[in-house]
Amino acid sequence: MVEYILGDYLVETGKLTSVQLETIVEKMDKVRVKLGLIAVVEGMMTMEQADEVNRLQAIMDKRFGDIAVEKGYLTDEQIGNLLKTQGNTYLAFSQVLVDADILSLEEMERVLEDFRVKHSFSKTDMEMLKSDDPDKIVPLYLSPETLEFGEWIGVVVRTMIRCIDRHIYIGKADLTKSTVVSKGAMQVVDGEGGKTTAFADVQGGLLDIASIFGQADFTEMDEDALDAVGEFLNCVNGLHVSALSQKGVSLELLPPELIEDDKEFTSEKICNIPIFVKGKELKFLVL
C-alpha cells in the first residue's frame, strides 16, 4: 500500500512519472533490500559508515553484516533484526528508487518530511505508514467522524490485499448524507448494529475486482461483472459478520443487489473511502 501512497506523491511533485512508478512497483517484487539501506533508514548506521562497508565489500569476500560487525558499527543481534525486515515494502520501494538513481536516501527523507507536513501526519503516523501494515495505515485515513466505520473498512482493505491485489491503496474517508452510485453492488447486513454496504465504481476499479475475484476476463461492467463484485462484497461482509459473531453479535447477510443504473443513497451518515486498484478508483460505502 505504501508504495503507491508515496509513489503518487512523488508523481504529484514531479519527482517521478506515472510510467516510472509502475516500473518501480514491478521491480519491487524482485528486489531484496540491502542491509546497508535498512541500517541507515533505521538509524543504526550513518550513510558514511554504510558507504565504507560497501567499499570494503568490493575488495573483501565478506558479507555486509560481517564487515559491519567487525568495524563495530553493528552487533550480531542488530544484524539478525535487520535480516527480518528485508521484506518490508517501504524499504523495497526505497531500494529500487536508490538503485535507479532517481532519489538518494537523503532526498527520500526530505520527501517523507514534505509528505508528513502536507498530510498533517505525526512522526509516529509516518512510522505506521512505513510499516505497510493495513491495520496501522487505515486509521491514518479516517477522520474522528469516520472512526466508527474503521473495523468494517479494515476488513475490506485486508481482504482486497489478500484476494485482489497486494498493491491496493486508499485515500481519505469522508462523510456525506447523500451520494449516487452509477455502477456497483450493495448488501444489507441486517440486525442490531447492522449496516448497508456498497462498492461503487469511479474510474474502472470495480472491473479489476470482477475480473480477479470472478476469474474471468471482463471488459465492461455488465451484469456478470457486477455479480462477481456482489459475490466479493458478500465475502467481505461475511468475514466481518463472522468476526462479530465471536463477540456475541448476531447479524444476517441479505443477498447482494446489483446497481446497474443511478441509485441514490441517503442517510444521516454515509462513510465513503476511495480505494485504488491498479491505479483505478472505486469507493466503499458504509451507511
The structure class reads: alpha+beta
- Helical content (DSSP H or I, runs of 4+): 40-55%
Strand content: 15-25%
What are the secondary-structure elements, in order, as H or E? HHHHHHHHHHHEEEEHHEEEE
Shape: elongated
Number of helices: 13
> Unreliable stretches, pLDDT < 50, 5 or more residues?
none
User: What is the count of β-strands?
Assistant: 8
Average predicted local confidence, pLDDT: 89
Q: Rounded to an integer, what's the Rg over CA atoms?
A: 22 Å
Gap from first CA to last CA: 25 Å
Largest sheet: 8 strands, antiparallel
Please give a structural write-up.
Helices cover 49% and strands 17% of the residues. The chain has 287 residues and is of the alpha+beta class. Strands 1, 2, 3, 4, 5, 6, 7 and 8 form an eight-stranded antiparallel sheet that branches. The chain is elongated. The mean pLDDT is 89.
